[in-house]
Amino acid sequence: MSLPENTSGIGTSPEDMSIAWLRDHVITCMETESRSDSTIKQFRNSFDYLETIYGPDYDVSNITHAVIWQIKEHGFQKGVSARTINTRLAYLHSAFNMLVKEDIIERNPFAHFERVKAPGGEQKALTMAQFKHFIEVLDAWPHEVARKLIRILLYTGLRRSEVLLLRREDIDFSAGVPIRFRPQNVKRRDKRRRWLLIPRGCREDIAWFLDEFTGDYPFKQCTPDCVTRWAKQILVAAGLPEHQTKSLRHTFSTRALEMGISIRDLQRYLDHSDVRVTEIYAHDLDRQDLDIDIGI
Fold this sequence. Notes:
This protein is an all-alpha fold. Helices cover about 50% and strands about 0% of the residues. Strand 1 (about 170) and strand 2 (about 180) form a beta hairpin.
């Protein structure tokens, strides 16, 4: 979740370094870089969170590492989920890291923060029984595009945008089995690619998209929000909590670890910049019987 270098020319030597100024500075830079509306909204929410503690006029150069504990405490008192608190901290880390790169402040007060753990351990991955039932409901789902896209997400662990932006030329069927494909690293918005194996559980689905749709982007048949809506509908139909589509990625990762893949290999597969993010997926291992072969 990195921010672009400051190319707007604003705020290089600001006299007013208030939280309100930082909000405008970051949002302006992201709009210049054409960042998504959802990303901008997350930053706005994070600044709102910070303002509830310090107020909009507080000088950001005076904020210390202690603000992390104040944000956590405020969240606990307001009943905010651990996931939301961690998201706010992550976006604030990115915002202040931008100031460090611009030599406006020397240190990022949000560096090396410890993630909040949900009380009792929040289960994100589907259990073995939930997984089997989800597959049964998914296989009977009438919408063919939705059924196949959700299955690809579940069996590859890719992000929604990574699946939708797969190009025809990125799929290599000529090498035989296992087939390879290389998703674009859309999260970091660079041109680096990584070759991955296509799991057995979704090879026919990927081949179907290539045969059914023409053009360079055969999988781009909907928006990411549409994929999320379909996933929620199928989860509800299966009698499961209305998780975000990221629960499918979490299920994939948890099962991969159970099958013996190392944390470092999984980190490279999921394209995480920090192995600590990948380690989150190991939290459910001692609570589940995950022996299913998902085709890694």
